[in-house]
Amino acid sequence: MSEPLRVRVARSDPAARTDFEVAWTPPMTVLDVLLAIQRDHDPSLGFRFSCRVAMCGTCTLRVNGSSVLACQTKVEPGRLRIDPMAGFPIVRDLIVDVGAFWREWAAVTPYLVPRDGLDEPAVIPPDTPERRRIDPSLDCITCGACFSSCAIADDRRDFIGPAALNRAMVLIADSRDAGGEERLDVVTRAQGVDRCHYVYGCTHACPKGLDPAGAIRALRRWRTHGLPD
Amino acid sequence: MGFPTEPDVIDTDVAVIGSGGAGLMCVLHVHAADPRLSVALVSKGAVGRSGCTRMVQGGYNAVLDPSDSIDAHFRDTLDGGKYLNDQELAWTLVNDAPRVINELETRVGCFFDRGPDGRINQKAFAGQSFDRTVHRGDLTGIEIMGRLRDQMFRVGPRELEDVRALDLVRDKDGELAGLTALDWRTGRAMLIRARVIVVATGGAATMWKIAAPAREKTGDGVAMCYRAGLPLRDMEMLQFHPTGLLAGASRLTGAVLEEGLRGAGARLLNADGERYMSRYDARRMERSTRDVVARASYTEIMSGRGTRLGGVHIDISHLGAEEVERRFPGMVARTRQVGQDLATGPVEVSPTAHFHMGGVIIDRDCRTEMAGLLVAGEDAGGTHGANRLGGNGVAESTVYGARAGDQVAREAAGRPLRDPDPEEVAASIHQAYAPLHRESGPLPFPLTTELKELMWARCGVVRDRDGLLAARTALDRLSEQVAAVCAPGPAAANYTWQEALDLVNQITVAQLVVESALTREESRGAHYRSDFPERRDDAWLRYVIVRRASDGRPDLSTRPVETTRLVPEPEETAP
């Protein structure tokens, strides 16, 4: 048997067991560790996941302080500390209520407002400035890792937050959308882009390699210099 | 110990169960047709982020190019389905798909990959006569479900998130009146009264040892409809995707490496380095349909030509690392996650349980035998016949989700809210809470493992009568054990309890798969019987129907396929 993992898991019940020794069976992720604990040590451990391949974005938590997807985080022998995401009320153990994330998301009108006459898929070559701006910012899985690692969002809870601002940027840049002016107005108000202090916690944390901080910079630029063509 | 089992009552015009592609498209279409209708969206997992539409990699088949044709897509779908398809459902699928793609692009807000001319790019997928698969990179599901989820903020259904549907319930006259449910976050029971109910929970492929789907897919919808007495068809038809990742004990095992790899020229090699598809389908090689490739790989593995982890190799590295990384970034990342690398060399894969072609019998407007009950997406059977083409899955869920929504709007006004029979409600809730009340008994986890091992060994890629009979006996025993299962802990957010409830549905569906597989004494599509290895169009151009008899046992019958549009060519009779 190889060296075991020593795992400490945050629990909401103060009487619940927090420390576990789990056999290391590579390839092994944090999700595998949690499943092993639930199966072999404590069936009452609460955590959430669905797809286990970085598409659903529901297994977000903190490992040794960093906000990550449990299913994408490899473990090596040694010590591991697992906490719920930061900035959200805890439902139980590692399960949090992400309602605040979605309230912010909803605030930027996150859906396409089709411009008049958009009846057929728009003809837009992939190498246009528009797509070069948008494409690297798609594939957000709304996992909340950026929110959990954002020093500002965690604090007063009135910052629109990195994921929602990234979504706003994508839609504002999308020539198929007619809601840009209004959206830019929302994201540049008091709860918007100016609350960001460019700590880059979001960009470092994003498991999909997106750059929400870059999106926030773009939004500030557009406020000053006008919307992109 | 007391738990809150007196249900909270919710009244709604429409209840949609499931928040994948079918469920959310349904909500959109209900709203578009009649915004006054109230909609409750019942979702066992996070809304728009659970289930499998989200996990779609490759893409979406639709006829967009003038040199392609609806007839060609239809013929491919029937060829792939080995002519077991309900031809009206398949015809409806291929006809609606272009319109729904257009809606996803221009109304829902998706943006699919473009070719250099700025028009939607369509790529090659296995088993198709034309390159017609619309996609967004190799992670198409995120774009479709992300945008559908966004639309929910415009439409504003009542989102009952983390709520598990338990049973359909009727009134004293036997009319559909609503459903029982369980909010697993709080542990509270619910009674949802609705004029019309749409079941769109997804399939049950999680019950095999190596399996691709998200955790929610435990056959809840199909099991619920079966308990309510509805007829199901093609339950023996469970698709194994040929290329599931192997990652030892990790949960990542079974995750799909997408079909487009084979479309782009990936080779399959056994442990001897032989490109074995030449012995199974020399013409189409790796681009043969999923059933043929999965069975070929399985045969290689079982004949002792498997790799160290018990699989075969998929290799696309001859395209060059840069090209593979550019075209399949998600797949490359997925393999690196388990210490392999698709960009630079072969990766170990195995057939993995992926999609259930079988399900509830519906018509082209998603109607069932029960008035007021619609079924859409993977919970329904017939569209794909004996084997689904890659790219027809998300097409089915969105096309039929949309049609269900349109149908809801036509039906809801004419159906009153009814009072569910209190005894039915109490029985359903009592049964669901039983594991929580028990002081002792087995935990569900080892039983789940046993079920997965059993289905893999006895009712997997290759089946025979002895194995299926053994599976029947083992499932009877498992269903007794699950009736005594215990879930320690509180009612709120108790996953052990939820696993126990999943397991009840999985075992129910497993029994129906086994019984249907025993009935079909031939080989066709995904169903391969080593004791009946031939496809028998003379005797078996029939589909297997199963429904619950009055004694609670499955009642099986068969009915001839209605070849309303296309009759199979006599020479095309390979299983």
Automatic annotation (TrEMBL), chain A:
Pathway: Carbohydrate metabolism; tricarboxylic acid cycle
Family matches, as Pfam families: Fer2_3 (PF13085), Fer4_8 (PF13183)
Residues annotated as domain 2Fe-2S ferredoxin-type: 5-88
Cofactor stoichiometry and binding remark: Binds 1 [2Fe-2S] cluster. Binds 1 [4Fe-4S] cluster.
Claim: Hydrolase is one of the keywords in the record: no
UniProt EC number: 1.3.5.1
Ranges for domain 4Fe-4S ferredoxin-type: 130-150
Enzyme class: oxidoreductase
Cofactor requirements of the protein: [2Fe-2S] cluster; [4Fe-4S] cluster; [3Fe-4S] cluster
Family: Belongs to the succinate dehydrogenase/fumarate reductase iron-sulfur protein family.
Protein name (record): Fumarate reductase iron-sulfur subunit
UniProt source species: Actinoallomurus oryzae
UniProtKB/TrEMBL annotation, chain B:
The protein's name in its UniProt record: FAD-binding protein
Annotated stretches, region: Disordered: 552-575
PANTHER family xrefs: SUCCINATE DEHYDROGENASE 2 FLAVOPROTEIN SUBUNIT, SUCCINATE DEHYDROGENASE [UBIQUINONE] FLAVOPROTEIN SUBUNIT, MITOCHONDRIAL
Record-linked Pfam families: FAD_binding_2, Succ_DH_flav_C
Keyword terms of this UniProt record: Flavoprotein, Oxidoreductase
SUPFAM superfamilies: FAD/NAD(P)-binding domain, Succinate dehydrogenase/fumarate reductase flavoprotein C-terminal domain, Succinate dehydrogenase/fumarate reductase flavoprotein, catalytic domain
Source taxonomy: Bacteria, Bacillati, Actinomycetota, Actinomycetes, Streptosporangiales
InterPro entries, alphabetized: FAD-dep_OxRdtase_2_FAD-bd, FAD/NAD-bd_sf, Fum_R/Succ_DH_flav-like_C_sf, Fum_Rdtase/Succ_DH_flav-like_C, SdhA/FrdA/AprA, Succ_DH/fumarate_Rdtase_cat_sf
Residue intervals of the Fumarate reductase/succinate dehydrogenase flavoprotein-like C-terminal domain: 449-570
Domain FAD-dependent oxidoreductase 2 FAD-binding: 13-394
Keyword Chaperone found: no
